Amino acid sequence: MNKDTTLKEKKAGVSRRKALKAFGLGATVAAGAAVASATPGKPSKVDISFDDQMGNYFQDHYKKMTKEEIKEALARLERRYKATYDVDIKVDNMPAQPGVLFGYALNISKCKGYRECVKACTETNNQSRDPEIQFIRVLEMDKGSMNMEEANHYFSDDETVPKPDKWYLPIQCHQCENPPCVKACPVEATWKEPDGITVIDYNWCIGCRMCMNACPYWARRFNWKAPSLPKEDINPVTHYLANRPREKGVVEKCFFCLQKTRKGEMPACQEACPTGARVFGNLLDPNSEIRYVLEHKNIFRLKEDLQTEPKFWYYSD
Amino acid sequence: MGIIHFFTACFKELLKGGAAYWIWVTSLMLLVIQGVVTYAGQLQEGLIKTGMSDQVSWGIYVANFTFLVGMAAAAVMLVIPAYIFHNKDAKRVVILAEGLAVAASLMCMLFVTVDMGRPDRLWHLMPIVGHINFPYSLLTWDVLVLNGYLILNLLIPMYLLYNKYMGKEGNYKLVLTGAVLSMFWAISIHTVTAFLFSSNTARPFWSSALHAPKFLASAFAAGPAFIILSFKVIDMSGAFKIGKKTINLLAIIVTVALQINLLMTGAEFFAEFYSEGAHSASARYLFFGLNGADKLVPWIYSAIAMSLIALVLLMIRQTREHPITLSIACVLVVIGVWIEKGMGFVIPGFIPTPIGEIFEYTPNMHEVQVSLGIWGIGLLVFTALVKAAIPIQNGVLTHSK
Ligand code: SF4
Questions:
Q1: Residue of A135, A169, A218 best to disrupt the B interface, most CBs of B under 10 A
Q2: Model's pTM, two decimal places?
Q3: Hey, which residues does A106 pair with through a beta bridge?
Q4: Which of residues 184-213 of B touch A (CB under 8 A)?
Q5: Is the model's pLDDT at A29 over the cut of 70?
Q6: Superfamily of domain B2-393, CATH level 4
C-alpha cells in the first residue's frame, strides 16, 4: 500500500460510493454481483453472504483502499475461499520491503529443459489446473540458433531431456522496469511495486486483455473460465497481489513468488531447479549472488531493443 | 412539452409500416434474441466459449469493433459537404448517415463489452467512481472518444429534426460548430483505434505508422458503400427519394478511398517482403502461411479479390452508374474491408506470439452468434432512427399535424 495514496484516496473512495448511489447503480449491479462474485467455484453450491457479495462488488482499487478497507477485503476473501474450497486460506498483504529490487538471472548453459520450475510454480501459486495455466514457457531450440519461430514449445514430458543437439530457454515475466503492460491497462489494475514486481489486482481487472497484447514476452495468461483448483492442490499461504486463488475473466502472470520472496525466501522455480541454473536476489545488495553474476558473467536480455528494461537476464558459463 | 410530443410522434412512426417492414424488424429481433441467449451462456461460463486463447487473445469481437469504428467515422464523409459546402444533395441524406454513425458506435461499444472478461466491472472504467489510466492507456482514449462521438451524432440530427418538426429555423451557427467538431471527432475515433494496435511495440505487424491513415482510407470506402446500399433499400421502399447525384457523389468517394487503400496495401506488402526479416513473420503468415499454418490465407486473398473487382466496377463509368453493378461493387467493398480490417488485421498480429509460437484462431459458432446478435441490435437502431427521421425530414410529420 502506497503511503501517498491514503488521505486523498480515502476521500475519493467515499465520493465514489456516493456517486455510485447517485447513479442509481446500486440496485442494478446487485443482481450482476450475485452472479459474478460466486465465480471461483460452482456458483450454486457456494454460500456467500449478501454483505460479502456487495462488499466484493463495490471493492475499490487496491491502492485506493484504506488500511481498514484492505483488512475487510482480505477477511472477505478468506471467507469466500473457505466457502468455495473448504480450505483455510490465509491472504496476506505484506508490502514491498525498503531497499529491495528483485532481479533474476538464468544460466542457459546449465538449463537442461527438465521443466521442474514449471511444475513447482503451479504447485506454489494456485493456478487453475483445468485448463492448466503455466507462467513459465520453456523453448527447445536447435543448438546454434535462436529463432524462436522454429522453437518447440511443446516437447513432451516423457522424452529424455536434454537432447544432444538442443538447448533450452525458459521464459516467464521479465518484470520490466518500464512495463508496457502497465501502460496499456485502462483501469490501472496492474502496476509495478516498489520492489520492482509488476502485480495485478485480480479484483479490479476488467479482463480486456490490453496488457496481454502489450507484453513482449508473452508472460500473461487469462482465466478463460472459472479456474478449477482441486482442494488438495491448494497452497493456503497466499498474498493478495500474488498467489491467492484467482477468478474467472481476469489476467494473471508470474509475480516472482512475492508471497515468499518478500519474506526473504527464494521463488519456487529457483528452489525447484535441479541444475542450479537460476539465480535470484536483490539487485540493490552489492554482495548478492545476482549482482555477482551480472558483474562477472556474459549476460544478455531478450528483446532489449524494445527498451522495457527487463530485470531478467540470461547468462552462460 | 414540444420535446415529449416529438418523441411520442417518432415512436408512433415506428409502429407504422407495411409487411416488408415488419418482416425485417421481426427477423432482426429474432437475431437479437438468439444473440442475447448465446451471450448469457458466455456470462455464465466465461470467454472459454469463444475460440480465443492466450495466444490469440482477441478475435472476431475486436475485429468487428475495428471495422465498425470505421463505419461510424464514415458518416463524416457526408457531414463535410452538407454543412460546410452547402451541398443540397448531401444535406438531404446527412441525417441518415448520422443514424449510421450512431448505430455503428453503439455496436462498437457492445463489441468491446462482450469481449470483456468481467463486464460486471464496467464501472471501473468510469471517471470518478472508477479508476482510469488516462492518458497512458489507449483504451481509455477509445472509450472517451467513442462515447463523445455517439452523443454528438445523436444531438446534431436530433436538434435539426426537432426544429424541423416544430417548424422552426435552427441556429445554423450551432449546427455548423457541431458538424465541424464531429468531423474532427470522426478522424480521432479512427486514429485512436489504430493507435490502440500500433502502440504495441511487441507486435511488429501492428506497430506501423501506416495503420492510422490506412484505417481512414478503408473506412471511407466501406462506410459510404454501406450508406449507398441502405439508400437503395430506402429508395426501393419508396419512403424517400434519394437523388442520383447523391449516390454518384458517394460512389466517387468510395472509388477514391478504395484506390488509396489498395495503394497503401501495396506499399505495406513491399516493406514487409522486399527485405523480409523477423518483423515480417505475421505478414508472411497472413499472405502465405507460416510453417504449414495458413488458415488466414484464403480470407485475405478473397478480401483482395473483392476489393479489386469492386474497384474495376467503380472505375468504369457505366458500371458505376448502373444500379445493379454499383450495388454489387458496394457489397464487395463492405465485405472486403470487413475481412481486411478484421480477420486480416487483428488476428495476424497475434501469430506468431512474441515468443514465436504459431497458434491459429478461427471464430467459433458462439462468437458468430453473439456477433450476429449485436449486428441485429445495430440494424434495429439504424432502422428505427431512419424510420422516424424520414417523415420529419420530408415535412410529413410535424408538430401542427
Ligand atoms: S486485462 Fe486486466 S490487467 Fe490487463 S489491461 Fe485489462 S484490466 Fe488491465
A1: A218
A2: 0.91
A3: A278, A314
A4: 199-203
A5: no
A6: Formate dehydrogenase/DMSO reductase domain (1.20.1630.10)
Considering only alpha carbons, which residue of chain A is nearest residue B352?
A149
∠ Cα A265 A222 B287 (to 5°): 125
> What is d(CA A163, CA A53) in angstroms, rounded to the nearest whole number?
52
CA B265 to each of CA B236, B269, B294, B304, B310: distance values in angstroms, whole numbers, following the listed order: 36, 6, 20, 9, 16
Residue nearest to atom 5 of ligand 1 (CA): A185
Cell of B319: 458500371
Does A183 sit in the ligand 1 pocket, CB within 6 Å?
A: no
Helix (H) or strand (E) holding A142: strand A137-142
B115 at A interface, C-beta within 8 A: yes
A289-301 burial code (b ≥16 CB/10 A, e <16): ebbebbeebeeeb
Least confident window among A157-161, A162-166, B133-137: A157-161
Q: Is the predicted pLDDT of residue A32 greater than 60, yes or no?
A: no
Tally of residues, chain A:
317
The helix (run of H) or strand (run of E) holding residue A41 is none
Residue A49 CA to ligand 1 center (angstroms) comes to 28
Quote the cell numbers at residue A118.
Answer: 514449471
Q: Which residue has the cell 450512431?
A: B102
A182 lines ligand 1 (CB under 6 A): no
Query: Distance between CA atoms of B262 and B336, rounded to whole angstroms?
Result: 11
Q: Residues near B10 by Cβ (< 8 Å), separated by ≥ 6?
A: B388, B392
Domain ranges of chain B: 2-393
Q: Name, in order, each residue with C-beta under 8 angstroms of A18's C-beta and a sequence gap of 6 or more.
A: none
Q: Does B56 touch chain A (CB under 8 A)?
A: no
Spatial separation of the C-alpha atoms in residues B240 and B391, rounded to whole Å: 8
Q: Are B57 and A209 in contact (CB under 8 A)?
A: yes
Inter-chain touch B357–A153, beta carbons under 8 Å: yes
CB contact under 8 A, B121 and A204: yes
Average predicted confidence (pLDDT) for chain B: 90
Q: Are A235 and A124 in contact (CB under 8 A)?
A: yes
**Other Cβ atoms within 10 Å of A98 Cβ, number:** 8
pLDDT of residue B77: 67
Closest residue of B to A213, CA-based? B200
Which residues does chain B have within 8 Å of residue A217's beta carbon, measured at their own beta carbons?
202, 354-355
CA of A239 to the centre of ligand 1 (A): 19
Q: Residue B239 phi/psi, 5° resolution?
A: -75, -25
Q: Half-sphere exposure (CA, 13 Å, Cβ side) for B174?
A: 11
Q: Please work out whether the CB of residue A251 comes within 6 Å of at least one atom of ligand 1.
A: yes
pLDDT at residue B156, as a whole number = 85
Task: Give the DSSP per-residue string, A241-308.
Answer: TTTS---TT-EE---TTHHHHTTT---HHHHH-TT--EEEEETT-TTSHHHHHHHHSEEE-TTGGG--
pLDDT tens-place string over residues A291-308: 999 999 999 999 999 999
**Any alpha helices (H) in chain A, and if so which ranges?**
7-22, 25-36, 50-57, 67-85, 116-125, 180-184, 210-214, 258-261, 268-272, 289-296
Q: Could you give the domains of chain A? A: 3-92 (no CATH), 94-317 (3.30.70.20)
